[in-house]
Specification:
By secondary structure, the chain is mostly beta strands. Helices cover about 10% and strands about 30% of the residues. The longest helix is centred in the first third of the chain and has 14 residues, at about 40-55. About 40% of the residues are buried.
């Protein structure tokens, strides 16, 4: 079990350690559904099965399997790493300056090419918009990075359909040989879910899994972000695995009664899967929607 606590911006306190339970064996199996005694919550498991059944062979699933949905950061820092902590800080705060004009192009479409075959044309982002996605501040008195040039190239990216080669803007950073890359194609529109969301907490305390934070190299474990409050023992995430999907359902452990401050704490929870994630879709049981990728404290996932 791996957990990594992190405060959400706002009225947050140091989070409790998360309880993270692992997937079992068999066919469609579930991890612990979030009860303190280790027994799955029937209402949560029932909701997860309803979501899995609704998506199975649905129009939404067909659209998802044909679309382009990035499951990794669209902004890739220089491969060699930052030379100094000041440069790293400048990147993380978006304190990046432009010393020259950016290129314009008449190309409006870019091609996503998947490693195991297949391709898809998607609208191409202009260089200026790509630059603005990571250059967010302009403070000359603080450490900063300087972009001196940009050109259209390619990079590789993990998507919902596996590894893909995608068009990317390659930004030259003063003092660095390797470029900063920004994926240049826009994701496909999200399909309309084939099932309605359930109200927060209606299915025996069920909560949403807010985002995917990472996937193990072998695909046998995933790290997701889940929320809890100040008067409980942290988030618990269960998973119903099928051949087509993995439906995640979150709750909190040992919620205590009595006076409690109103807080929403977001925390990492890592789950081991019975089989590698591969091309299975990650779904949130409460909303019935795909779980977006997003780094802790990072920007909202682009395809949401």
């Amino acid at each position: 079990m791996n957990t990594q606590a992190n405060r959400v911006v706002g009225r947050l306190l140091t989070p409790f350690l998360a309880a993270c339970l692992l997937a079992g064996c068999g066919g469609d199996r579930s991890t612990d559904g979030g009860r303190a005694n280790g027994q799955p919550a029937p209402a949560q498991e029932k909701r997860a099965r309803e979501v899995a059944d609704a998506w199975r062979e649905s129009e939404a699933a067909a659209a998802w399997n044909q679309g382009y949905y990035p499951m990794a950061d669209a902004i890739q820092p220089v491969d060699s790493g930052w030379h100094t902590t000041a440069d790293e800080r400048a990147y993380k705060t978006g304190n990046i300056f432009l010393s020259d004009s950016l290129p314009t192009t008449a190309i409006t479409q870019g091609t996503v090419k998947w490693r195991d075959g297949g391709s898809l044309n998607r609208p191409l982002m202009e260089a200026t918009k790509a630059y603005q996605s990571f250059a967010r501040t302009h403070n000359a008195e603080r450490p900063r990075l300087t972009v001196t040039a940009a050109k259209l190239g390619e990079t590789t990216l993990t998507t919902s359909r596996g590894q893909a080669t995608v068009p990317a803007w390659l930004f030259t950073i003063e003092g660095y040989d390797a470029p900063l890359k920004r994926v240049a194609v826009t994701p496909s529109p999200l399909p309309e879910p084939p099932i309605e969301p359930t109200p927060e907490g209606s299915a025996d305390g069920i909560r949403s899994v807010t985002r995917l934070a990472g996937t193990a190299v072998d695909g046998r474990s995933i790290t997701v972000r889940a929320t809890h409050g100040a008067c409980d023992d942290g988030p618990v995430v269960g998973a119903l695995e099928t051949d087509e999907s993995i439906v995640l359902y979150a709750s909190v452990a040992r919620e205590r009664s009595g006076p409690c401050t109103a807080q929403l704490i977001e925390q990492n929870v890592t789950l081991k899967l019975r089989q590698p994630l591969a091309h299975r879709i990650l779904l949130d049981a409460r909303t019935g929607r795909p779980v977006p990728y997003g780094l802790p404290n990072g920007p909202t996932p682009s395809w949401t």
